[in-house]
Design brief:
39% of the residues lie in helices and 17% in strands. It is α+β, with helices and mostly antiparallel strands and 210 residues long. The radius of gyration is 19 Å and the shape is globular.
């Protein structure tokens, strides 16, 4: 990447991570942990394979990403964030917080979506408001694959996959579900525009903002 040529911390940071796609690669590694090249490609729709390889090399040179050879039965290269790369977590969180109002109008017609990207509003806005009660599990269906919200120690965690016996199931379009989780849309309004809650609605409401 060409340098801005400025002796300024912001400019130096952008020299390292300001290229197109770079922060989204960091996002994927923060959300998914050590990942195969194919995992990153799946989480970065539309990136050219040669560009992904180039960005990964650049991140390795900056000391933000490392690669390792996983033993059998995986037997493939895994990319992971270094401790220096993991320090970008709060940066992406605040960038996402700033960007959430830009999502209120909804996605463009051809926007891609991965349900695990909902980790950001979950981490920012959801909390277990009744931690003294037994934990609850809520399955969220807002795309091709479900994700699960689970409570623990007063917090709410998101993981990919389905729940065997969820207390509640929330389903709807990505726009509506993201609005509910971020607190920009009430659950009642979400239901009016097509969201659906099966199971114990109280289990879901226990987690939502407000």
């Amino acid at each position: 990447m060409r340098s801005y040529g400025q002796y300024c911390a912001v400019a130096r940071a952008l020299d390292a991570i300001g290229d197109r796609w770079t922060l989204l690669i960091i996002r994927e590694l923060l959300l998914r942990g050590p990942s195969r090249y194919t995992d990153l490609r799946n989480g970065l729709p539309r990136i050219a394979t040669n560009l992904l390889a180039d960005r990964l090399r650049g991140l390795e040179q900056e000391g933000l990403v490392s690669r390792e050879e996983a033993p059998p039965p995986v037997a493939t290269t895994l990319f992971r964030l270094t401790p220096r790369g993991e320090e970008l977590g709060p940066v992406l969180t605040e960038l996402g917080r700033w960007g959430i109002p830009l999502m209120v109008e909804g996605p463009n017609e051809d926007d891609d979506f991965r349900p695990y990207w909902l980790s950001l509003p979950v981490d920012l806005y959801l909390t277990d408001r009744s931690p003294e009660q037994p934990p609850v599990t809520v399955e969220v269906r807002a795309g091709d694959e479900p994700v699960v919200l689970e409570t623990g120690e007063g917090k709410v965690h998101l993981r990919p996959g389905a729940a065997e016996h969820p207390d509640a199931v929330l389903s709807g379009t990505p726009h509506v579900i993201a609005g509910v989780l971020a607190g920009t849309m009430s659950l009642a309004d979400a239901i009016v525009v097509g969201a659906k809650v099966d199971g114990k609605r109280a289990a879901l409401q226990r987690l939502l903002p407000g």
